[in-house]
Design a protein that fits this description.
It is built from eight helices and eleven strands. The protein has 322 residues and is of the alpha+beta class. The protein has three domains: 3-57, no CATH class; 61-133; 145-319, 2-Layer Sandwich (Heat Shock Protein 90), CATH 3.30.565.10. The strands form three sheets. Strands 6-8-9-11-10 form a five-stranded mixed sheet, covered by helices on one side. A four-stranded mixed sheet has the order 1-2-3-4, with helices on one face. A two-stranded antiparallel ribbon has the order 5-7.
């Protein structure tokens, strides 16, 4: 099926007669979800002799998919609550609030904390995925310092970067303006990107996180902020790059397979960035590392712009100042 429509109404007969490919539509009929597949029957002369249609009741499939989404959202919320308590108490223990710890005890508490953080990130990604699928994704726009969020995210990964013997660097433009974004969502985006960079960078490598505005032609006030996460890791082959944005995508590269995860991180990154009216790019090559660049409007968009309206957004070359 080459054309998939989700409207409750089908084209009239005259329009269907001009179809060059099968038509599929999903609609509700007397409380049931029905898929109709229709196509014209053509004679050798090219005339339309009639139509053939197949009706399929997919109510159970639709209900099962809805139940699955509700289950994922519910279980993720239920997981996040006790994990937050684990994080809080482990931080209290590690900080010596209940007395000094022996070196071995400190190591164990840090391991507990790091793994709880990983589970919280997974739960947050599952919740964001469920909200996006159900059309419930909401953004709480407030004036936010993107450089501060970037610095806080990097700071939270310092223990892991030290453990993996990685260098890190922050590149921040001076006097950055505040951006009207949802700080929790942008923090989630950067957490996913930095987490991937840490996972897929060899010991001795470097991770760079930067924030800068995009210069406007003619020297006008900036309209966009650029955030990038760069690593010197294993890189991503060109033929694999379109796939990494898909939900649950897992690379066949054994190094990526060993890193674990659900394959949701980059899908959530793109979903949340585009929900802000922004874009995300990837520049990567095997053995040369990866650079993910996010472009966000400084002001809350009045409406999300269509993907085909490319002229409204700076190109990646303009965004990085080339």
């Amino acid at each position: 099926v080459q054309a998939i429509l989700t409207q409750a109404t089908l084209p009239d007969v005259s329009d269907m007669a001009r179809l060059t490919s099968p038509l599929e539509a999903l609609f509700e009929l007397e409380g049931k979800h029905v898929v109709v597949s229709a196509a014209p029957i053509r004679l050798p002369s090219g005339e339309t002799a009639g139509f053939v249609a197949l009706f399929r009741d997919v109510t159970r499939e639709v209900q099962a998919e809805s139940a699955k989404r509700e289950f994922i959202a519910t279980i993720s919320h239920e997981l996040r609550t006790p994990l937050t308590a684990i994080l809080g108490y482990s931080e209290a223990l590690y900080g010596g609030m209940v007395g000094p710890l022996m070196p071995t005890q400190s190591t164990f508490v840090r391991i507990i904390h790091d793994n709880a953080r990983r589970l919280v990130a997974i739960a947050n990604n599952l919740i964001a995925m469920a909200e996006a699928e159900q059309g419930r994704l909401r953004l709480n726009y407030i004036p936010t310092d993107p450089a501060l969020i970037a610095a806080e995210v990097v700071e939270s990964f310092i223990p892991r970067m030290k453990e993996r013997q990685l260098e890190w660097r922050l590149e921040m433009e001076d006097d950055l303006p505040l951006a009207e974004v949802d700080p929790i969502r942008i923090r989630q985006v950067l957490t996913n990107l930095v987490s991937n960079a840490v996972k897929f960078t060899y010991p001795g490598g470097r991770i760079t996180v930067g924030v800068a505005t995009v210069r406007e032609p003619g020297g006008g006030p900036p309209q966009y902020v650029r955030i990038w996460v760069q690593d010197t890791g294993i890189g991503i082959p060109l033929e694999e790059q379109p796939c990494i944005w898909e939900r649950f995508y897992r690379s066949e590269n054994p190094l990526r397979a060993e890193a674990g995860g659900l394959g949701l991180g980059l899908s959530i990154v793109r979903t949340l960035v585009e929900a802000h009216g922004g874009r995300v790019w990837l520049d990567s090559a095997p053995g040369k590392g990866s650079t993910f660049t996010i472009l966000l409007p400084l002001r809350r968009p009045t409406s999300l712009l269509p993907h085909t309206d490319e002229d409204v957004y700076p190109t990646i070359e303009q965004a990085i100042g080339l």
